[in-house]
Amino acid sequence: MKRALTLTAMALCLGTAATAETFRWATTTDPQTMDPHAVSSAPVLGFLNNVYEGLVRRGRDMSIEPALATGWEPIGAGDGWRFTLRQGVTFHDGSAFTAEDVLFSYQRASSEQSDVASWFSPVSEVIVVDEFTVDIMTTSPQPIFPDSIANWMMMDSGWAAANGAELPARDAENHATLNANGTAAFMLAERQPGLSTVLVPFDGWWGEVEHNITRAELTPIQNSATAVAALLSGDVDMIDPVPIQDAARLSETDGVKVVQGIEARVIMLGFAHDHEVLYGGADAGAPNPFADVRVRRAVAHAVNVDAILQTIMRGNAEPASQLVSPAMRGYSAIHAARPAVDLDAARALLAEAGYPDGFPFGLSCPNDRYLNDESVCQAVVGMLAQIGLEAQLDAMPVSNYWPELRADNFDMYLLGWSPGTFDAEHPIRFLVHTSGERLGTWNFGGYSNPRIDEMLPLIQSEIDDAARQAMLDEAAGIIQEDMVYLPMYVQPLIWGTRDNIDLTQRPDNFFILRWVTVN
After folding, report:
1. Which of 80, 501, 497, 506 lies closest to 258 in space, CA to CA?
2. 471-501: per-residue pLDDT in tens?
3. Distance between CA 201 and CA 387 in Å, rounded?
4. What gap in Å lies between CA 66 and CA 77, rounded to an integer?
């Protein structure tokens, strides 16, 4: 029987937190759900990595290491992987973690309602061998499969059943939206969406405690000036991100420090490929021009990425030519060139496509998800106006943004993508493959190419690096030729902390509390 747990009471039992051990941080984006299978986005997955755990996890250097599995090995000639589970692990409510929870978490995370189902596209079956052994069978050899499930988090099957949360609720709510019961180093004590989320240490955690936090409080602060002021006053110990324009000043300010790096995330523009008509602008309802590759190429020639990097990103970002950065495995060196800024060529392409005077349309953009996201979209609006494309900008909080994209309420949109496997296969699976039950789950524009679909399982199963890279090179060429997306730049990482905080910044922009020390 499940043991009842009052998190507030347990927090009190841990003792009153000394001020030095209470850690407060602020981000622009509040995680929209506490359900680890409902939304495949960094604000959700990054936050929930503090509460839930997977069979494997990524270390400080992004390497794969054991978590709820102590070991894994391939089965047969590429038939799957056997995972040996860690014994003695309990969920936050005291229930034991077993192989049945792995099977349940697979069924839940691979369901049609899940936003992470693409992780399991090559999986044919999960078999419970015994209480602490599971076999994950695949349809073909999957050499990087353990890497691909680093963010697949285990849920308690009994807790989910008792609370009516057997399936994820992506655009709705269930018990798992506001509540959590994981196995990780921290447990959820309080959840007020958009206002505050409080975590406290789980004293029954199986791992080695490296932090000294007794209470961690996340507050979403969308206004960048307010966030900086909170950091300078000591109201928060960390902000993510630091506004680009304030980074240099903060780095020279007593009492604070700036932690800076390059994220794995590529910021890009996406297009409505399969829409029959325009959604936004004065010509809403007219035939969709973005279905024509010449129009998409015209956009690419008009968007001056170097100017965006210089004026908006202040030299803190790097231009991108592909859906992954050069630091990722499988990056195609032979496709490193970006489209040249050429307004005459852009106008000629529009005229050739039948739009010599351009056209109005809707540009959708979040205003609290990526660094300077709305400012970047405003710059794009001005650049496209030079070739007669009148973009009507619709900027909104990310909590509204994803449902709008899934409802096809866009003509062109801004998207950032960080490959969870740090491999070029990842965005092909999520962003480019034809949308289906487990594939193309973030392919909002509806792009479809039979050759891409044919190559994906071959890329996933190929163990010869040269042969695999050849296929990734071909895929990158098709994606560029069809202008499926317009990659613009690799987003920088800029965090600000009080000078008494020690932490680890990873290129996936996941903030892991168990590595935080308040001095």
Report:
1. 497
2. 999 999 999 999 999 999 999 999 999 999 9
3. 56
4. 23
Tokens of 172: 């709705």
For 302-337, how does the pLDDT look when each residue is reduced to its tens digit (9 = 90+)? Answer: 999 999 999 999 999 999 999 999 999 999 999 999
Residue 357 burial (C-beta neighbours within 10 Å; 0-12, 13-18, 19+): exposed
Cβ–Cβ under 8 Å, residues 35 and 179: no
State which amino acid sits at residue 178: L
Residue of 229, 280, 313 whose CA lies nearest to 390: 280
Helix (H) or strand (E) holding 196: strand 196-201
What backbone torsions phi and psi does residue 54 show, to the nearest 5 degrees?
-110, -175
What the block records as the tokens of 269 is 């523009």
Residue 242 and residue 28: Cα distance in Å, rounded? 10
Q: What is the pTM of this model?
A: 0.86
Interhelix angle 293-302/373-385, nearest 10 degrees: 110
Distance CA 136, CA 79 (A): 9
Residue 496 neighbours by CB under 8 Å, 6+ apart:
228, 231, 238, 239, 240, 242, 250, 256, 257, 258, 259
- Report residue 453 as tokens: 């679909």
Residue ranges of alpha helices (H) inside 140-265 are 145-148, 157-162, 175-178, 224-233, 247-251
62, 125 Cβ separation under 8 angstroms: no
Q: Please state, in angstroms and rounded to a whole number, the distance separating the CA atoms of residues 358 and 390.
A: 8
Q: What is the DSSP letter of 515?
A: G
* Rg, C-alpha atoms of the chain: 23
Tokens 């604000």 locate to 43
